[in-house]
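Z., the sequence and structure:
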Amino acid sequence: MTIIRRMAVLLAAGALLLGGCGGDRSAGRAGDGGAGGRRLSIATGNTTGVYYVLGGALADQIGRNIPGYQATAEATGASVENIQRVVRGDSDIAFTLADSAADAVTGRGAFPSPQPIRAIARLYDNYTQVVATVESGVKTLADLKGKRVSTGSPNSGTEVIALRLLMVAGLDPEEDVVLQSLGLPESVQAIKDGDLDALVWSGGLPTPGVTDLMTSLKGEVTLIPLDDAPAPLRDRYGQAYAAGTIPKDVYSTPADVATITVPNLLVVNEGMDPALAGDLARLLLEHRAELERVHPAARSVTRESAPQTGPVPLHGGARKYYG
C-alpha cells in the first residue's frame, strides 16, 4: 500500500470515530465481568513487545487491587490503533506513544480532528531500534535506500516514527525503500528467513523480540545509530523526540548506540469515571514494584514523572489523585 493510500485509510478511519466520541464509553462497553466485576479491555501492542507484557501485568493488578473490576490485555497494532479503539469504546485503557497522542489531541496526522482522549500517566520512554543485517551493508539511515524495510504494524506508533525517520534521512518512503508493514514478530522472522534487510521498532528496553533477534543472529545483525535524527524530528514534527542511548549491555552490542526516545502514555476516553481514572493512577504508583517484576520499564513510573503527560491533558480523576 502506498503512503498516500495508507494515509487515506487512516483519515477515513479517523472520520468514522467522530460519530462515537461522547460519553462514558468504558461504562457503556464493558460487561459486568460476572462474579469478578466489570471487565476492562487494555489495548497494548505486538505480543513480543513491552506494551503487551506490561499490559498483562496491569490487567492482573487491576483484578487484584481495584474492587469490582477485572481486566484483559488485548494484542493490537499499538499506538494509533489503540487511540482509535479508546475513542470508539472498543477498549477502555490504552498504551500509546506521546507523538501519536499529540497528533490525536491536536487533530493532525492520522487524526482529522481533535480526539477525546485523556492521560492517566506518563510511563517509560520508548527507544527507536533500527536493526539491519550485516550482509545488507546498512550502517546509517541513508543506507536504507533500496532495501527491504519493515516499518511496523499498520496504525502503530512504530510506523509513524519509521516513516518520519526515513523522511528526515532524505528518503522518499514510497520510492526509495521497499516498505513492508509487519508487526515485530513477523519482522523478526522475516529477517531470520532472509526476507528483510532491516526493521524499525519503537519499544522499551529490552524488547523481547529484539533480544531474540540479536541473540539468535549474533554477529549477523546490528543496531543502526541515529545520532543525527533527534534535531530534524523535533524541528519537523514536535518536541516529543529526544536523544537517547541504548546501553551496550541491553543487547550485548560492542558499544552504546545513539537513538531517539519518545515517552509512552497510558490513556483513556475523557468520559471515563473519574474514580476509576484515579484508581488507575494510584495503582501504577502504589503497585509499581509488582509491575517492575514483570518488566523493568515500569521502574520509570514515578510520582514526579507520571503527571507530565503534555500535550495530552490528564484525566480529571488522575489529576485529582496526583494533587
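The longest helix spans residues 50-65. The longest strand covers residues 117-133.

Let me know what you think.
H.
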